[in-house]
């Protein structure tokens, strides 16, 4: 990662610059990116040669609103101006959760600045101060801040110069501070009975029940959130199953409607075939009486006697006329029933296009039937 590429640095969530041999003057572009970044979460500056005496990192962190984790192990931040500026900048910081600053030789003087920061900071949860030449005075300063601090839950003070005197002060602070879950003191000059006292305090179930750690609260919150999410998903799945059942029922109803329409169509076609059979063309031919024999006077309708065949002809025509009227009435009746059934089918959710297709096909059959009937009568 190029330190002079501001456009690249400003987009990074995690910036790794460990063991780069960096000095304070090398980080001007980085400090600007830290100040203005909207996404930076973790910054790694371990194993370099930073003193932070110019206050630029402290100012950048003070302006940043997203940084949660800062690693700055093994630099040259002694008890001088650098440590004071950094820890003063963190007093009112409300975003940083974890600070790792081991092997920086901050000593008891630097521990005093840390204690002042812990007395005011409300959001820092984890601080690592291992191998920093902190003695009993520094331990006592930190213990005093723990009486009022309720946010920190893990403190690393291993490999320092703390004896029973400083450790007892820390133990006394643990009696009143119920947020501390882990206190690392290995590699110090502390007797077994003091270590056992601290261990017993941290394991006291009554004490742990009085205060729930931030991590426990976070875990509980995430567990509840996950449970609610799963419950919501289960409800949605149940609703989808209900909708699937409704769709399946509607499909069955539509199939039933389609079957009814098909059955009615077959019945109508049967009726049409029946009427077509009884209306087969009738032979209505008669003798041609339009040609008068030679030397005969043309007869009028009044004085022309009707033959038996002519009478039969008129009788048949009258019967056909009556049947035609009856058929037309029946066709109108069937058409009205088809319209009614189509309306019922559409209201019940049947496929409108399919209903229209069947209705049109029946209309066409009726038209053909009526045309055939008319041709028969004309014959």
Q: pLDDT under 50 segments (min length 5)? A: 209-215, 278-293
Q: Helix proportion of residues, in percent?
A: 55-70%
Helices, by number, come to 12
- The CATH H-level homologous superfamily of the largest domain: Ribonuclease Inhibitor
Q: Which CATH class of the largest domain applies here? A: Alpha Beta
The SSE string, one letter per element, is HEHEHEHEHEHEHEHHHHH
Q: Measured on Cα atoms, how large is the radius of gyration?
A: 51 Å
CATH fold type of the largest domain: Leucine-rich repeat, LRR (right-handed beta-alpha superhelix)
> What's the arrangement of strands in the largest beta sheet?
1-2-3-4-5-6-7
Shape: rod-shaped
**Total separate domains:** 2
Content of β-strand: 5-15%
Provide the residue-averaged pLDDT: 78
Please identify, by name, the CATH architecture of the largest domain. Answer: Alpha-Beta Horseshoe
| Major beta-sheet overview | 7 strands, parallel
Query: Structural class of the helices, strands and pairings?
Result: mainly alpha
Care to count the β-strands? 7
Distance between the termini: 102 Å
Account of the protein in words:
58% of the residues lie in helices and 6% in strands. It is mainly alpha-helical and 379 residues long. The chain folds into 2 domains: 6-212, Leucine-rich repeat, LRR (right-handed beta-alpha superhelix); 221-289 and 303-378, no CATH class. The protein has a 7-stranded parallel beta sheet with strand order 1-2-3-4-5-6-7, with no helix packed on it. α2 runs parallel beside α3, α5 runs parallel beside α6 (136-146) and α7 (164-176) packs parallel to α8.
């Amino acid at each position: 990662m190029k330190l002079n590429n501001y456009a690249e640095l400003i987009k990074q969530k995690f910036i790794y610059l460990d063991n780069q041999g960096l000095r304070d003057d090398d980080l001007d572009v980085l400090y600007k990116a830290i100040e203005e970044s909207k996404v930076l979460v973790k910054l790694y500056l371990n194993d370099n040669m930073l003193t932070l005496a110019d206050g630029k990192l402290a100012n950048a962190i003070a302006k940043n609103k997203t940084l949660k984790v800062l690693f700055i192990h093994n630099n040259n931040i002694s008890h001088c101006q650098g440590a004071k500026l950094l820890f003063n900048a963190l007093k009112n910081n409300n975003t940083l959760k974890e600070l790792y600053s081991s092997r920086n030789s901050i000593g008891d003087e630097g521990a005093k600045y840390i204690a002042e920061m812990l007395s005011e900071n409300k959001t820092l949860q984890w601080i690592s101060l291992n191998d920093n030449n902190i003695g009993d005075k520094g331990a006592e300063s930190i213990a005093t801040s723990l009486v009022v601090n309720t946010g920190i839950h893990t403190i690393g003070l291993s490999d320092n110069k703390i004896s029973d005197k400083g450790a007892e002060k820390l133990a006394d602070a643990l009696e009143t501070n119920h947020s501390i879950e882990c206190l690392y003191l290995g590699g110090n000059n502390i007797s077994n009975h003091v270590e056992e006292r601290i261990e017993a305090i941290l394991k006291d179930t009554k004490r742990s029940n009085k205060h729930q750690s931030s991590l426990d609260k976070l875990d509980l919150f995430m567990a509840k959130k996950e449970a609610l999410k799963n419950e919501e998903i289960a409800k949605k799945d149940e609703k989808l199953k209900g909708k699937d059942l409704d769709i399946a029922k509607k499909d069955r109803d539509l199939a039933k409607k389609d079957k009814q329409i098909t059955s009615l169509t077959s019945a109508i076609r049967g009726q049409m075939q029946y009427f077509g059979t009884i209306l087969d063309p009738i032979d209505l031919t008669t003798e041609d009486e339009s040609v008068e024999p030679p030397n005969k006077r043309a007869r009028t309708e009044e004085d022309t006697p009707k033959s038996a065949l002519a009478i039969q002809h008129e009788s048949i025509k009258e019967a056909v006329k009556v049947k035609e009227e009856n058929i037309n009435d029946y066709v109108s009746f069937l058409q009205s029933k088809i319209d009614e059934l189509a309306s019922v089918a559409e209201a019940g959710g049947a496929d409108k296009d399919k209903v229209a297709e069947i209705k049109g096909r029946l209309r066409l059959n009726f038209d053909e039937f009526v045309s055939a009937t008319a041709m028969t009568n004309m014959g």
